[in-house]
Give the backbone structure.
Amino acid sequence: SIPKKQRIEFVNSLPSLRELHVILGGRDDIAEVENATVEELEVVRVRGFARFPDLARFPELKSLKIEDQLRLEEIQVPPVGSKLEHLSLHNCKKLSLLHGLENLDHLKELRVSRTALDYDRLLDDLLPGSLDVVALYTGSEKRNRALRLRLDALGFREHGSP
């Protein structure tokens, strides 16, 4: 919850940082952040957040959660080398482009709800073979049921193991 005008690049010099949670406050992006040790990144309810940096800035990232980012339109996944295992995107109503999802060789879990992504196209494109859990939710129960039937037929579980 740091003010928009205050830069947050100080986290780049934290050699033991494993989790970074950017919650509330306001800023257009976190482009100044690049940290080789962050494994978990969460961006939640950051007012004005419209651009997500290339995931290559976080080479050890295993879990990414982006929630309630109403201006975010796209996310770019690096072409190779990502260790991302869990990707969760919720209530990002303008998010319509997710580039490079097929390159996430370690991705085990994908959860997406209330975005502008074309879920049918997402499922028609190449999904990583490592995926086990896929949950896609819209604002319609009927559509959710249809998506779940298709996901089940493709062999994806809705929930991970406890």
Notes: Residues 35 and 78 are 15 Å apart (CA to CA). The chain has a mean pLDDT of 87. The first strand starts at residue 19 and ends at 23. The first helix runs from residue 119 to 124.
